[in-house]
Write a structure and sequence with these properties.
7 helices
Length: 196
């Protein structure tokens, strides 16, 4: 696997990693499902998915995304331009693109929690590979939809998603992300004793 593909793929999802990790670290408070149960008698999402986690996770992910956009612009004019790091369409396109990446990650995780509850899995119980891939699939879906919408309404001439994510980038993320996710969860649980 070409190391540039790996670097570029990971660069594209840095905002998602920040959003997902931040939601876990700074979450808490009112659950998104307000403690309500589904018709099967189980919680809709559970206590792990909160409004504070969603909003603060998205905000921090977007802040990180805007920062790496600026970094990408400077890198493109440096000796490291060969890395081909994505600038997320620069301003103002970066706003909807990075937002779609962050909210895609978080909603992918929330949707996975819904199905996890339906299958009787408890909070913190491993559900491989869904626990590891939910947020990446959310990123891919949301960023594809927003990029396509921006192209359809004429904001962009090209589709940012297809210009940015090659098949190799997607495969790389689907292969690498589970390992990062398992490592991050292991470290978090050891450090805090909290359930993911």
């Amino acid at each position: 696997m070409d190391y540039l593909i790996v670097i570029q793929a990971l660069w594209l999802v840095i905002p998602a990693y920040i959003a997902n990790g931040s939601a876990l670290l700074v979450g808490g408070g009112t659950p998104i499902d307000f403690g309500k149960k589904w018709k099967d008698g189980r919680r809709i999402f559970g206590d792990g998915k909160t409004w504070r986690g969603l909003i603060s996770g998205a905000f921090l992910g977007m802040t990180g995304g805007f920062a790496i956009t600026i970094a990408a612009i400077y890198i493109a004019d440096s000796e490291f331009a060969f890395l081909g790091l994505n600038d997320f369409g620069r301003f103002p396109l970066m706003i909807p693109i990075i937002s779609s990446i962050c909210f895609g990650a978080l909603f992918g995780d929330i949707l996975e929690s819904f199905f996890k509850r339906r299958f009787g899995k408890k909070r913190g119980e491993n559900w491989i590979p869904f626990d590891q891939l939910d947020f990446i699939l959310g990123v891919l879906l949301f960023s594809f939809v927003i990029s396509s919408l921006l192209q359809i309404i004429g904001v962009t001439a090209n589709n940012w998603f297809f210009d940015s994510f090659s098949l190799w980038h997607i495969l790389t993320l689907l292969i690498i992300t589970p390992f990062f996710h398992l490592l991050a969860n292991f470290v978090h649980k050891k450090a805090s004793g909290k359930k993911a």
